[in-house]
Amino acid sequence: PDGGYVMGNPAAPIKLVEYGSLTCSHCAEVSEQGGAEIRDTFVASGRVSFEFRNFVRDAMDMTAAILTRCGAPESYFALTEQAMANQKAMIEKVQAGGNAAFEAAIALPDDKRGVAIGELTGLTEFFAARGISKDQANACLTNGAEAAALAKRTKDDADKFKIEGTPTFLINGSSIGSMGWPELRAKLQSLGAR
Q1: Left if phi > 0, otherwise alpha if psi is -120 to 50, otherwise beta: which for 162?
Q2: What does 29-88 look like in DSSP terms, one character per residue?
Q3: Is 113 helix (H, G, I), strand (E, B) or coil?
Q4: Which residues contact 193 (CB under 8 A, 6 or more apart)?
Q5: Measured by CB atoms within 10 angstroms of the end CB, which terminus of the chain is less buried, N or C?
Q6: Tens digit of pLDDT for each residue in 11-52?
Q7: What are phi and psi of 92, to 5 degrees?
Q8: Strand order through the sheet with 5-7
């Protein structure tokens, strides 16, 4: 109902929410350093539930977020982790294509922008290798209602939780701000995560 995807026991005593961006290098670091421990230790123990809410910062981020949501709900976390790991390659591909090409893609109408950015960034091909066919990806990327809903949730949640950067974390509904994995891990363990 809050626009995110939840992993683990929804009744867990520690409810961790991450507002993250698929184009944020700090979010990618937290995913790389802590993703496995969150999933395989804290969530697997039943003590922690983990919810990821896309906090869309730019057109590239919107395209990646829509594609992670394009498959079956159970594939969302794996696709999000893989998109985070692919972040550097995606940005390098855009840089290699040149600023003019990216600006032209951004200037396209809503129903064409995501498809063009998907091609330019290599995201359409990246997700095709992970089970989201090009036709399926393009259908998702032309769905203006999904993009509008993600943009609205980002704005509303930024106002509600005073989110100024990503990643921003909530524990049991209260913001604990932005931090790296070592600080977040220590915070979770102090609350009983194991």
Answers
A1: left
A2: HHHHHHHHHIIIIIITTTSEEEEEEE---SHHHHHHHHHHTSS-GGGHHHHHHHHHHTHH
A3: helix
A4: 14, 41, 42, 45, 47, 48
A5: N
A6: 999 999 999 999 999 999 999 999 999 999 999 999 999 999
A7: -60, -35
A8: 5-7, 48-54, 14-20, 168-171, 174-177
Q: Rounded to two decimals, what is the model's pTM?
A: 0.94
What is the signed CA dihedral for 126, 40, 71, 106, rounded to 10 degrees? -50
Using CA of residue 77, residue 82, residue 84, residue 87, what is the dihedral sign? Answer: negative
More confident residue, 1 or 153: 153
Residue 57 CB: number of other CB atoms within 10 A?
18
Print burial letters for 102-129: b (CB count within 10 Å at least 16), e (below 16): beebeeeeeeebbbbbbbbbbbbebbbe
- Residue 108 DSSP code: S
Query: What would the pLDDT profile of 119-162 be if each residue is shown by its tens digit?
Result: 999 999 999 999 999 999 999 999 888 899 999 999 999 999 99
* Structure-token match 């995807």, residue found: 5
